[in-house]
Amino acid sequence: MTFLLESIFNGTSIGAVLLLAALGLAIVFGIMGVINLAHGELMMLGAYTTFVVQNAFRALGDSWFDWYLLVAVPLAFALAAGVGVMLERSVIRYLYGRPLETLLATWGVSLILQQLVRSISWQMTLQIALFCLLFFGGMWLLKGRTIAQRWHAWVTPVLLVLSLGIGITTGLAVGGAAGLAVTKPWFGAQGVDVTAPSWLRAGVNLLGVQFPFVRLFIIALTAVCLVAIYLFLLRSQWGLRIRAVTQNRSMSACLGIPTQTVDALTFALGSGLAGIAGCAISLLGSVSPNTGQNYIVDAFMVVVVGGVGKIVGSIVAALGIGFVNYVIGSGLFTRFLAPGTGLYDFFEFFASTSMARVMVFILIITFLQIRPAGLFPQKGRTVDA
Amino acid sequence: MAQQFGLGRRKFIVYGSAALGTSLLIKGCAPATDTGGGGTTAGSGETIKVGILHSLSGTMAISEKSVVDATQLAIDEINSAGGVLGKQIEPILEDGASDWPTFAEKATKLIDQDNVVVVFGCWTSASRKAVLPVFEAKNHMLWYPVQYEGQECSKNIFYTGAAPNQQIEPAVDWLLENKGKKFFLVGSDYVFPRTANTIIKAQLAAKGGETVGEDYLPLGSIEVTPIITKIRSALPDGGVIFNTLNGDSNVAFFKQLQGAGLTPDKYPTMSVSIAEEEVQAIGVEYLKGHYAAWNYFMTVDTPQNKTFVEAFKAKFGQNRVTNDPMESAYIGVNLWKQAVEQAGTADDLEKVRQAAIGQAFDAPQGPVKMFPNHHISQTVRIGEVGDDGLFKIVYATPQPVDPLPWNQFVAETKGFTCDWTRTDVENPGQFRMEGS
Fold it and tell me: How far apart are CA A242 and CA A274, in angstroms?
């Protein structure tokens, strides 16, 4: 009994983390068909948001510190969603229907975001802000003017070089004058520490099974996210529109649904969920510029195994993978087998965390050979991308 | 969708160049921080070129960047005191990018193109193993600053970090004496933890301890639930956890240990890869009361350490901390400088190698000396994480411990030693000791 309860709880808690990481992807990749390799970096931004909020609350005092997650979760959602919309509007929308180019572009974005977090400082913020102001402000001012029409081909490169030059030099000058205070990176390449509130750091022992509160919190958070997505997609007007656009884009456009807004909204939702996932994983693991990379493969794995386009599939797949991972990795099989038998040696060999991962991959590959479309394949006409 | 593209392509170029510009901006800032304080080519015009080879990007950048800073500090101090043999040292910094083949490539580049006379660098054993053939083929010189698993003794490498008998073995002894006989071994899945655990298991078997289990996490993995289950079922009433995890997994391990109810009073954890920098990144709340074994802690009470910490903070910022690999890198540069001065040349590597053996230095950790096996003697210390994130030193060896690269608990290397001053044996890197 204890053993069964322990397996179920631990399998679920691993699955919940996988699911939370994969939920946003299930929407972006599953519903929109966009392969977003920067998904992990959106999670990373969520984790860093948690770090910043935590530090702000720590400054307020101990009684406030316990409740910083109440602010961190929505803020992580908002920030990641915001970055997601920027990403969609500036890069991805030009690449719809071209998966390879989307893949490369988002891979590039993920590298930019990682490096941004490593090196961002007041100096760099100033440089970027100045550049954006000069470049986009200049473009806006010149838009439609005669001078811009005559020198059409030159406007963009000249503005670009000028604003880059001014931005960088001003930044360097300010950095040189003010020194370390301005040039010091905010976060740096080092990981930062996110400490869970004290009520999440402990655990409780019931029926011989240890329940860490932080795991319970993440399971609850995942459940809340699931219910919210369900209500949004199936019960709200915009959810209806999203489903309509997914099924038939041109027909939806004909019926007056603003497909571009729907795209942006869907992407924002998926990215925002990545932000929440980032907030959750910051309580469990490390927060560093590479944090996102640890999850991206797992997240895609969950979505593919579950069946692209089906959120139910992702839920079952995440829990299944989590459960198998736990049962093999912790060597539970070996408890029921007689030592010395072939089967015992087999499971004993895979009963280490790194070998369990190998085993899970083997199982997934085998599974996909049998059911290439995943657990819950989409039926009927395929999605019009 | 199709109509969008005709109009969209031009816009895409605009945004594309904006993105390019942003990444240029980001890159533009990087050299300003990376080479800060470096490249002091002032002097008589002629300089001694040395290479620094560490990961400035990728997963290891976290740890290696600060070692670069410490190397830089040592070089700057030597330069402002007049340099070596009257010449300024000119460091050439290369990024190994946490990628082992890149390390080998960059080592070749430093030696062949930049004509450096010595290279300071590498952190992971994998990167050291990758550059080792390069340094041996070119008969060049590497100073390696990190504690490692031993079982290696190259003529072309000087090891200023601890060998296992200067970190792992004393830590196991101390745990056996003070914390219990039952050990669970946790490590990352690569060469250092696996070799270290082989040594620990052999040592426990020899000294009456017991290994109740071991497990390895893939590098970078953060899912530690199965490991925690195993620890709890192997050690239901508490016991010692010996931790050789590296990088991100450490953070996940300690964050989840506490919630799982494995607290330091019943499950004291001894780590060999967690120093002051890592404590900051994991969070003091999770680490309080756990232990680490090193040769140097920032809290070591010597006048040399006081000067070292102050100089480092003045150069790189008041909130920075110093740790063992940084101190080892600092020692390496200083020992090399002394060897060059005694040899009277920096270019004749054979002479520098011979002169290096026997060099003594008053390091921040206390006196150290280069041995004929290219390792240095070190004081071994055990520290407990305190409220401020620094280590309270609970044990220190009274004398520096002599280095033994070939482990004496492991059957394959028992009785072997290394002595690069010997000419009467076929392989001075590994030969059987007399009387064994």
Answer: 19
Q: What is the mean pLDDT of residues A20-33?
A: 86
DSSP for A77-99 reads HHHHHHHHHHHHHHTGGGGTT-H
Q: What's the pLDDT at A225?
A: 93
Of B57, B222, B229, the CB nearest to A286: B222
- Taking CA–CA distances from B215, the nearest residue in chain A reads A352
Boundary residue ending a domain (B294, B311, B335)? B294
Q: Based on the fold, state whether residues B227 and B199 are members of the same structural domain.
A: yes
What's the mean pLDDT in A1-9?
80
Q: What is the CATH number of the domain that holds B337?
A: 3.40.50.2300
Residues of chain B neighbouring A192 (CB-CB closer than 8 A): 281
Domain hosting residue B203, numbered range: 166-294
* Average pLDDT value over all residues in chain B: 85
Domain boundary pick from B378, B397, B427: B378
The runs of H, that is alpha helices, within B60-99 are 61-80
Q: How far is CA B194 from CA A353, B167, B185, B217, B241, in A?
A: 14, 16, 10, 11, 15
For A9, which residue in chain B has the nearest alpha carbon? B225
Q: Phi/psi at B368 (nearest 5 deg)?
A: -130, 160
Question: How far is CA A115 from each of CA A71, A118, A121, A227, rounded to the nearest angstrom?
Answer: 26, 5, 12, 35
Enumerate residues 6+ apart whose C-beta is below 8 A from A155. Answer: A139, A142, A148
Cross-chain Cβ contact B223/A14 below 8 Å: yes
Tokens of A123: 């100096």
List the 42-71 stretch of A: residues with Cβ below 8 A of B: none
Give me the phi and psi of B263, to 5 degrees please. -95, 155
Both B158 and B305 in one domain: the answer is yes
| Token digits of residue B418 | 């290394």
d(CA B396, CA B331): 19
The residue in chain A having the minimum alpha-carbon distance to the alpha carbon of residue B279 is A193
The band of B32, judged by pLDDT with boundaries at 50, 70 and 90, is: very low
Least confident of A141-155, A290-304, B159-173, B404-418: A141-155
pLDDT, tens digit, 9 for 90 and up, residues B80-103: 999 999 999 999 999 988 888 999
CB–CB of B242/B184 below 8 Å?
A: yes
Q: Complex ipTM, two decimals? A: 0.81
Q: What is the pLDDT of residues A149-171, one digit of tens each?
A: 777 777 778 888 888 888 888 88
Contacts of A144 (CB under 8 A, 6+ apart): none
Q: Report in angstroms the alpha-carbon separations of B180 from B184, B244, B317.
A: 11, 18, 41
